[in-house]
Amino acid sequence: MANEKNRRAELARIIINEASDQQIIVLRERNGSRQLPIVIGIAEVVAIDRRVKGSASPRPMTHDLLDNIMESLGATIKKIVISDLRQHTFYARIHLKAGRKTIEIDSRPSDAIALAVRSKAEIYVAEEVFRKAGQE
Question: What are the structural domains of the chain?
């Protein structure tokens, strides 16, 4: 997907259904009308929802741990990209800056979004992903 143009997006909705294991987050294209619903798990949706609301847990959760590790190593998240959709599965890349190095890490979209929300990193969606799964 390196050749595809990425579109800036933002977290538009968090839909929590405690009776189900499948939750939904919706990304909305900035300066556009497309939306991208992504099904995620309950643990991930709760982590994202807490971050959006600024609620802290008494002990570090997994995404907090990852964020603390990156901070301790001097790494920052520059952006995340929902980069691909294959066989009904979304893929994401976390773009880190560590010193003079830029590092890309494969990630589930839910984990990448949870980290991006806390660090206020930009969220992007590959144009091809919007074409395959985006909704007006």
Answer: 6-133 (3.10.690.10)
